[in-house]
Design brief:
globular, mainly alpha, two-stranded antiparallel sheet, 3 helices, 76 residues
Length: 76
Amino acid sequence: MQVEKRTPSTMGRANKANVLHLIKEHGPMSRASVARTLNMSRSTISSIVDQLINEGRIREGATGQSTSAGGAARFI
């Protein structure tokens, strides 16, 4: 069995896949909730969510009460 080395590139892809999977499985959730659930920094999650939005894989929109923190990420 060949094990892939942990490089910043492979970790980034794994983190992105984990964020996408979480949103897909659990539905819309805030960036802060994603960060808490995956035990990752909010800045890392924001970067990943921005990438996924730019790729058209998720979208961000308001759900529930309006807050200054913005909307929740939704899987497309």
